[in-house]
Amino acid sequence: MLGLIKGLNVTLKNMVKPKVTYNYPQEPLEMPDRFRGIQYFDPDKCIVCNQCVRVCPTDCISLTGKKNPDPNQKGKVIETYNINFEICILCDLCTEVCPTEAVVMTNNFELSTYSRDELFKNSEWLFANDENIRSENTLNPIPVKKPTGGTPS
Ligand code: SF4
Ligand code: SF4
């Protein structure tokens, strides 16, 4: 009888305590701003420097570039950019080294799927992943390059 009363006492105490669980996935989880989530990629900012590819510890980034079609612009533009989330460990190194913030972290983390093939994400998918970008990466937008050659009248 004493044991029953003790048990009920514990139950009653915990019934009035604040909840420590979330109603996930019905209610989305808000992650801290420094959370390392699935990357957003902006092809217009990429200068095809390959630094993200070189620093990646798991070799999960692949990209191709081509000569800038605009004769007034130097350098290359991105053609394809892919991240294989089967092996990406979301370490944040690619975003740390990117000089133009073309690839940045978001707070998004939901990647579960029934097929491994769906974990291979291309630049269109990464560009569409444009919500919950880490706030420090939205403070300093890179100015759009203006064509060189010729002076404004
Ligand atoms: S987060 Fe890390 S593992 Fe993932 S693509 Fe970037 S550098 Fe590679
Ligand atoms: S995403 Fe950034 S680091 Fe990677 S190639 Fe483009 S500009 Fe360079």
TrEMBL record:
PROSITE patterns: 4FE4S_FER_1, 4FE4S_FER_2. [4Fe-4S] cluster 1 binds at residues 46, 49, 52, 98. It is an enzyme of class 7 (translocase). One of its GO terms (molecular function) is iron ion binding. InterPro entries: 4Fe4S_Fe-S-bd, 4Fe4S_Fe_S_CS, NADH_quinone_OxRdtase_chainI. Binds 2 [4Fe-4S] clusters per subunit. Pfam families: Fer4_7. It catalyses: a quinone + NADH + 5 H(+)(in) = a quinol + NAD(+) + 4 H(+)(out). Keywords: 4Fe-4S, Cell membrane, Iron, Iron-sulfur, Membrane, Metal-binding, NAD, Oxidoreductase, Quinone, Translocase, Ubiquinone. It comes from the Bacteria. Its main location: membrane. [4Fe-4S] cluster 2 binds at residues 56, 88, 91, 94. Its EC number is 7.1.1.-. GO terms for biological process: aerobic respiration. It is found in: Cell membrane. It is a peripheral membrane protein. One of its GO terms (cellular component) is plasma membrane. Its cofactor is [4Fe-4S] cluster. Residues 37-66, 79-108 form the 4Fe-4S ferredoxin-type domain. Belongs to the complex I 23 kDa subunit family. PANTHER family: NADH DEHYDROGENASE [UBIQUINONE] IRON-SULFUR PROTEIN 8, MITOCHONDRIAL, NADH DEHYDROGENASE UBIQUINONE IRON-SULFUR PROTEIN 8, MITOCHONDRIAL. NDH-1 shuttles electrons from NADH, via FMN and iron-sulfur (Fe-S) centers, to quinones in the respiratory chain. The immediate electron acceptor for the enzyme in this species is believed to be ubiquinone. Couples the redox reaction to proton translocation (for every two electrons transferred, four hydrogen ions are translocated across the cytoplasmic membrane), and thus conserves the redox energy in a proton gradient. NDH-1 is composed of 14 different subunits. Subunits NuoA, H, J, K, L, M, N constitute the membrane sector of the complex. This is NADH-quinone oxidoreductase subunit I. It comes from Shimazuella alba.
